[in-house]
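=== Structure Prediction Worksheet ===
Name of assembly: unnamed complex
Input type: mixed (protein and possibly other molecules)
Chain count: two
Listed entries:
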Amino acid sequence: MKTITVEQLVKNYQNGKVVTNALKGISFSVDQGEIFGVIGPDGAGKTSLFRILTTLLEADSGTATVDGFDVVKDFKKIRNCVGYMPGRFSLYPDLTVQENLEFFASIFNTSIEENYDLIKEIYQQIEPFKNRRAGQLSGGMKQKLALSCALIHKPTVLFLDEPTTGVDAVSRKEFWEMLHRLKIQGITILVSTAYMDEATLCDRVALIQNGQLLSVNTPKGIISEYPNSLWAIRANEMYALLHAIKADPDIESCYPFGQYHHVAFKNPESNQKKLEQIIQNGKYTDVEIKTITPNIEDCFMALMN
Amino acid sequence: MKQFLIFIKKEWLHIWRDRRTLFILIWMPIVQILLYGFALTNEVKNSKIAIFDQAKDDASRAVSNRIAASRYFSLVKNLHTYKDIDATFKQGKIRMAIVFPAGFRNDLLHANHAQIQLIADASDPNTANTLANYATAIINDYQQELNQHQDLPYTIQVQVRMLYNPELKGAYNFVPGVMALVLMLVCAMMTSISIVKEKEIGTMEVILVSPLKPFRIIIAKTIPYLLVSLLNIASILLLSVYALGVPIVGSLTLLLAESILFTITSLSVGILISNTAKTQQTAMFTSMMSLFLPTLLFSGFLFPVENMPAPLQVISNIVPARWYFIIVKAVMIKGLGFASIWKETTILLGMTVALLGVSIYQFKTRL
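=== Predicted Assembly ===
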């Protein structure tokens, strides 16, 4: 059975006369026990989607189910069985770590002791600070506490809206390790992020932009769908080089990526020679050119165009 | 039930840990009671009076007509027995009664000396004082006109009796006023702010996606503020009895019960405000504009409602504090029982049920 199904979901926000189309009819489904990533830039519609699935918003049209329940008709049943961690830090800053956890356990009619094993690995890391006010925790610890609070009632589906935004690289890594351990427990996880590199850590991802899904596939699948061969180029005058390459009519796209520019050609035949020609014309030095396998971000850039 | 209690405990921690706000909440009523101790003077017009004329002669009629014709007074009732005076006051229909003794004209013409008694409702001492002064001035006028053609002057002795508050203490008026103001402020403003705060920091999102019923969320959020307001009522009453010397003449139980009713009214207003307000600032300003000022202006606490233009008098009817103010004055100062305030209580109860119903109905189960 599919744990989450989304059918032609449309959501518009009206602010005076300005209408924002947050979701323009998206459809996908998530299998039981899957880590499903919703990847897209800010304003792509991720939070709207999460709020509709967690029954906080009603869609303008389309249907969605979570754990077999309709998000509109059976919203009370969904609220019993899902865990939700909103994008913003949403715990009580004036309560201590333990008080926060106790509170969220109790509103789900459970206690910390009852499901301690579920959150043990995460909670142990913040337990030394359990008498500290949540507002005084570091970003990574806040996220761990928020995750503990979202997990304490043993949800069947976990919704994590940008859980790693504003968290340092080490904590992000730890966070994803935790998600994989939760997956083993059979919890279905829908997670959104603006970090492309996190996509590879999901079982399947949906790339979303401007309220539309660009692609739904496994990370490998998305990479294999990449249409062209991709080149990385480096030289001494990176900025001038970027403009020089972009100006060439044969180039599909060129954008900075770390120390290199990634270059894709309009037709596969034109290739390294073309790049070498541009470099000779511009008299660049310290040049390095190589073919690379695209990553998710490259795929996203290609799909966006 | 356990989840409900923990929710209340959590709310209490919010209040307890925000020491600055807690400090304000507890000291505000005390400071206000002391501040409003300074008397305020008001102009009086069209005050309702009754006349108990035992003489029914030319002279008493002449005085009555002059008083009734003045713009300060409007005669609403002619009384026929002494008992009527008390009853009419208790019904709250009049602010002053004028008593002419039998044989008023005879005394004046033959003994050159007559008496008039003015009985004023001094639970609002400023108004009572002003009314008595106006009436005395009118009577003196009449006396002077008579004396123009006389060698031996006629004198009319005006005897003033201040009902309920013989010492004319301002506290008799402002203690009920401050009670209404403080309860409105603490309950409505603080509840609305605390609910909107949850929306602002995003915890409302998480609470909504839980099995907790919205109805329970609301009740749990309001109970701690109910407790704080009970504390405020206690501090105001203690202060007024022991520091200002205003006794609680009527039943304390009735007074507390009515106060709790008004507290619930204010809490419902708070929930109602929080339903529409998106930020804490909006909640605060809405509370200020829609509660604080009307309570101050329309409850009869600073300005007698009778003196206002008719449209404002109509508006004052929808201000819950107005009815509570009347109730507290009746019970605490005048020592009246439930029988004389059942009407005000019913109005307040009706408002509470309506407000609570609407606010719970409107409370959004989604964002």
